[in-house]
User: Which sequence fits this backbone?
């Protein structure tokens, strides 16, 4: 027998060093974790959502403890029992001699080893389980849907709330059984209870009993799994074109799964019986029976039925199950009640009846009156150039569309708030004091009517009706209400930028609020106005303990050393509206595009919250981020997480006050069972819909991400007939965005204020065109109402399937190939400028026509250039209009008078600030030959006026960086000078 190998030991000094390092690591980890949790708690306490904090924390802790104790404890118990009933004597063999040294190493440390295994497994299981806190809360507070599953006759809530939790429990049950079995096997092997290579008996009685029980438990859990698999058939993807139980699942797999349940039960009983029978032959035979049965009746038989019964006539066999899938998918995605309208059924494609359209336009049409010329996705640079005011301010990359009723008239506006742009601070401004205590907020609300631009020398710019600092215009904003402490730009490199605000009473204001006065002769501003934040938002850090806490949290010593941090100080953090709502309501998915609105004189961010599930029976599953993506995702909007789901509701409308950060959640869809479930779990967190003010309700919009998901589903599930659905011959497709230069990204939906077919007044709606599958022809037009009276009503205009209506790509091609357009594009596309196509809007006109309107902007290539509207393109049938204004383009398409309803037919610029342009110099008229004065020659005054006008346009083009306009102005100036010289010569001038 070999002598045992000595176990290496550490010196006392080494043990002390290792121990000190371990203590420090644990200390830093614990302090960091506790600091993070405490800072989180302070945020929840300041915002009034401590119910969310404690409920989530307690649920996570409970799941962590239960899963950790169960997994680590039961595994350790199994290993302890294996050790406890180890054989006192072991046969002498080479195998046992080799194991002896391991036994001698483990024996004095068996308690430590067993504890370490239990702790490691428990921690791993606990961390895994605590992530499923929403699953437990959903199960614990489940709410009935009031709809019954057609196959099993149970309420849908069983699948959405109960089934996922049962699967979670089963998964942990399998994990514990396997870990306990592996631990027991290893322990029995090391300590002689299991002897693989030793002659004689291979298992001791204790080992046989324990392993039989553990395998029996595993097989019993398998019986439960087979039972749950029956319900899991509602998520089957066996059907080629639909989700849910198919013909094969119902007729060739449902009964076999039930049979396998009983086979597994018999097998488990056989293993438990082995405790008494003491013969592995019976359980082995039962196990073989289970394996064979699972292969034959669980795999082979369904495959045979699918191949030889279903596939030859799948459209007929699967028809009732496809019908289930259609109905369930529509229910899951909120598409049960859609107003389908047969549109333009008598039309012959490009040969549309322009006479009837002209008659309607002349009578007055809300669609044309509100046709949007300003693209919020293009004009961020224009807003910045005209309304930034200071470099510390900025506008988001994508502006927003909202509507306001002013003087009894509802109009849609391009809106934005002048936010603090932390990334725009100059080098000398980028100190800790400046970044975190001086430049703390933005200021102001900016709005421009979406269907108007400024005419004249400043042509092509938005007509800002609410603007400047202090904010003035036709949308009233209070002084505090215009201060933007919470917004989308208050971050650097994706990290939230905190601000330290507040000061003792009587202290001088520190925070920069807005510039004071106007620029002097040198262009320098006369001064600035400072203020001190006095809102309810933020976390107080007046005590040394909290200052220390935030110094550790942000790793910033100035919290302890700077005089800017005092007894009255607060810290504002988590300042992005979307992040605030997501943190306050972690059970929601938040739409990627918050938008600002003025409510009772204060700027409020409005957001949409979605409740989702991936367990709705028979409904098609999708990836959320992928389904909600389009050509603009990530450009001023936030992409949603790419999580699997098959149920969605816009259940919550949320607001975030831009001044004090107050988060308010409203139950917009109070009938949603998922929302009701989480309202039980978090009582008092979501307010009833009745708490919303009328003014707030007037600004809610149908959310874009939900609409994009729904239109994707509609491309397939608008079909009622199962066999037509199976054949796919009436499938639609989301068109690619034609303005993105050939990139295959989905065209975004657009908000418009327009008349729906059959309605007499324009309404605010979200719209999208849909093409035929793998074709560029238009098949339908989808709109979702945002008006409070008809909110959420979906209308689909179905075009005749055999009529070649042009889709967005084809319309864009007709624009690009138009001779006048192509010529101007070549002029605009130069080293000094570039054309920028705005959104291509599809506007239904009357009952049989679709009008396409697209703005064309020109932007210089200089650093400070910005896009200006130069042309408007219109398409109706086979006719293309291309002019400086929408009014003129409509006249080209429909004839004189068609454009009278357009907003740019006669724009009143009375509310627009006078443009500042340099005074042109009048060329001197040379002295008369006789040295005396003489009256100007005929035509000279007109020539001078023409030169002045051209010089004004040239100055405007130079100021905006529009080099194409500069070239045109110089050419016009040359002609004006020649005309002046000719007039002067005609009058006898030198």
Assistant:
């Amino acid at each position: 027998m070999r002598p045992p190998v000595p176990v290496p030991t550490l010196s006392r000094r080494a043990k002390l060093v290792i121990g000190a390092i371990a203590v420090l690591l644990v200390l830093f980890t614990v302090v960091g974790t506790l600091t993070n949790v405490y800072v989180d708690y302070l945020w929840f306490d300041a915002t009034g959502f401590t119910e969310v904090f404690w409920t989530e924390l307690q649920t996570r802790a409970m799941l962590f403890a239960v899963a950790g104790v169960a997994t680590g404890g039961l595994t350790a118990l199994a290993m302890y029992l294996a050790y406890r009933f180890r054989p006192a004597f072991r046969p002498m063999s080479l195998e046992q001699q080799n194991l002896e040294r391991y036994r001698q190493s483990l024996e004095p440390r068996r308690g430590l080893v067993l504890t370490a295994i239990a702790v490691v497994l428990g921690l791993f299981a606990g961390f895994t389980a605590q992530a499923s806190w929403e699953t437990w809360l959903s199960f614990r507070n489940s709410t009935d849907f009031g709809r019954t599953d057609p196959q099993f006759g149970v309420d849908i809530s069983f699948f959405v709330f109960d089934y996922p939790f049962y699967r979670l429990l089963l998964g942990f049950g399998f994990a514990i059984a396997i870990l306990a079995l592996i631990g027991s096997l290893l322990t029995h092997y090391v300590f002689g209870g299991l002897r693989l290579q030793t002659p004689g008996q291979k298992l001791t009685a204790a080992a046989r009993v324990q392993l039989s029980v553990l395998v029996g438990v595993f097989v019993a859990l398998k019986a439960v799994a087979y039972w749950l698999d029956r319900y899991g058939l509602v998520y089957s993807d066996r059907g080629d074109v639909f989700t849910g139980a198919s013909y094969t699942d119902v007729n060739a797999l449902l009964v076999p799964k039930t049979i396998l349940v009983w086979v597994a039960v018999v097998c488990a009983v056989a293993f438990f019986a082995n405790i008494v029978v003491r013969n592995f032959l019976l359980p082995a035979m039962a196990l073989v029976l289970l394996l064979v049965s699972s292969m034959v009746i669980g795999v082979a038989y369904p495959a045979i039925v699918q191949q030889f019964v279903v596939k030859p006539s799948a459209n007929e066999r699967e028809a009732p199950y496809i019908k289930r899938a259609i109905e369930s998918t529509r229910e899951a995605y909120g598409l049960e009640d859609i107003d389908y309208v047969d549109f333009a059924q008598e039309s012959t494609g490009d040969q549309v009846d322009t006479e009837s359209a002209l008659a309607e336009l002349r009578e007055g049409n809300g669609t044309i009156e509100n046709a949007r010329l300003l693209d919020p996705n293009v004009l961020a640079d224009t807003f910045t150039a005209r309304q930034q005011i200071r470099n510390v301010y900025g506008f988001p990359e994508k502006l927003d569309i909202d509507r306001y009723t002013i003087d009894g008239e509802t109009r849609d506006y391009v809106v934005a708030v002048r936010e603090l742009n932390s990334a725009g601070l100059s080098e000398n401004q980028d100190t800790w004091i400046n970044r975190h205590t001086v430049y703390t907020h933005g200021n102001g609300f900016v709005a421009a009517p979406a269907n108007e631009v400024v005419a004249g020398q400043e042509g092509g710019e938005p007509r800002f009706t609410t603007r400047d600092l202090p904010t003035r215009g036709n949308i009233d904003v209070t002084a505090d209400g215009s201060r933007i402490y919470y917004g989308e730009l208050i971050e650097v490199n994706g990290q939230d930028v905190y601000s330290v605000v507040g000061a003792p009473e009587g202290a001088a204001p520190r925070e920069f609020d807005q510039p004071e006065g106007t620029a002097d002769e040198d262009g320098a501003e006369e001064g600035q106005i400072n203020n001190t934040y006095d809102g309810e938002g933020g976390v107080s850090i007046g005590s040394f303990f909290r200052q220390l806490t935030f110094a550790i949290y942000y790793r910033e010593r100035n919290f302890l050393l700077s005089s800017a941090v005092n007894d009255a100080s607060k810290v504002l953090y988590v300042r992005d509206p979307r992040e605030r709502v997501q943190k306050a309501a972690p059970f929601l998915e938040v739409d990627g595009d918050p938008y600002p609105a003025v409510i009772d004189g204060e700027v409020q961010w409005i957001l949409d919250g979605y409740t989702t599930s991936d367990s709705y029976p028979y409904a098609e599953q999708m990836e959320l981020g992928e389904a909600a993506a389009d050509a603009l995702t990530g450009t001023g909007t936030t992409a949603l997480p790419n999580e699997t789901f098959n149920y969605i509701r816009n259940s919550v409308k949320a607001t975030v006050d831009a001044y004090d950060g107050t988060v308010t959640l409203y139950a917009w869809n109070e009938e949603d069972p998922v929302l009701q479930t989480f309202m039980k779990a978090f009582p008092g967190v979501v307010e009833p819909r009745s708490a919303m003010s009328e003014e707030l309700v007037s600004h809610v919009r149908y959310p874009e991400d939900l609409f994009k998901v729904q239109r994707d589903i509609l491309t397939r599930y608008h079909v009622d007939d199962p066999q037509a659905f199976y054949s796919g011959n009436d499938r639609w497709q989301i068109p690619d965005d034609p303005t993105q230069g050939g990139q295959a990204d989905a065209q975004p939906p657009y908000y418009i204020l327009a008349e729906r077919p059959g309605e007499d007044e324009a309404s605010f709606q979200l719209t999208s065109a849909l093409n035929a599958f793998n074709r560029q022809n238009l098949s339908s037009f989808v709109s979702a109402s945002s008006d409070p009276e008809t909110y959420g009503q979906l209308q689909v205009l179905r075009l005749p399937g055999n009529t070649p209506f042009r889709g967005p790509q084809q319309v864009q091609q007709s624009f690009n190939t138009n001779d006048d357009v192509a010529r101007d594009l070549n002029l605009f596309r130069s080293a000094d400028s570039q054309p920028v196509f705005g959104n291509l809007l599809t506007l239904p006109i009357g009952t049989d026509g679709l009008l396409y309107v697209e703005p064309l902007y020109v932007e210089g290539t200089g650093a400070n250039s910005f896009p200006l509207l130069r042309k408007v393109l219109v398409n109706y049938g086979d006719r293309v209009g291309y002019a400086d204004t929408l009014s003129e383009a409509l006249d080209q398409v429909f004839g004189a008078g068609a454009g009278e309803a357009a907003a740019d037919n006669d724009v009143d610029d009375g509310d627009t600030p006078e443009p500042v342009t340099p005074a042109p110099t009048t060329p001197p008229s040379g002295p008369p030959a006789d040295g005396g004065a003489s009256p100007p020659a005929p035509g000279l005054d007109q020539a001078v006026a023409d030169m002045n006008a051209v010089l004004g346009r040239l100055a405007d083009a130079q100021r905006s960086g529009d080099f194409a306009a500069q070239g045109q102005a110089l050419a016009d100036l040359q002609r004006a000078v020649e005309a002046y010289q000719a007039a002067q010569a005609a009058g006898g001038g030198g």
About this structure: Residues 518-525, 909-938 have pLDDT under 50 and may be disordered. DSSP finds 28 helices and 34 strands in the chain. The longest strand covers residues 602-613.
